Amino acid sequence: MTRGLEYLSYEDRLRELGLFSLEKRRLQTDLIAAFQYLKGAYRSYISFDGEGLFTRVCSDRTRGNGSKLKEGRFRLDIRKKFFTMRVVRHWNRFPREVVAAPSLAVFKARLEGALSNLV
Length: 119
Description:
- Helices cover 44% and strands 3% of the residues.
- The protein is built from five helices and two strands.
C-alpha cells in the first residue's frame, strides 16, 4: 500500500496513481492480443491460417473504423465470455485511428487514450 492513500477509495487510489481498473487492464490486454492476431503476429504459432477466430465485416460505411469484426451468434450464454466475444464489441466502437495503427507501440498509445475516455 502506498503511504497516504490508505484512506482513499479504490477508484480514487487508481486515479491518484494514474492507473486503470482491473477490468480495463484486462480489456486492454485482450485488445492488444486481438490487434497482434489480426496483424498476423501469431501465424507461426497456430497450425491453421487463423481465418476462423475473427470474421471481418466488409462495409463501405464511412462511420466508425474500417475494420469492423462480426459477432458470432450462440445459443449458450457461456460463449458470451469467450475471448472473441469480449473483444469484438469494444473493437467495433474504437475510432479508425486506433484500429488502423501501423505498429504495436502506436496501437498501445492510442488504445490507452481511447480507454481513458471510457467510463
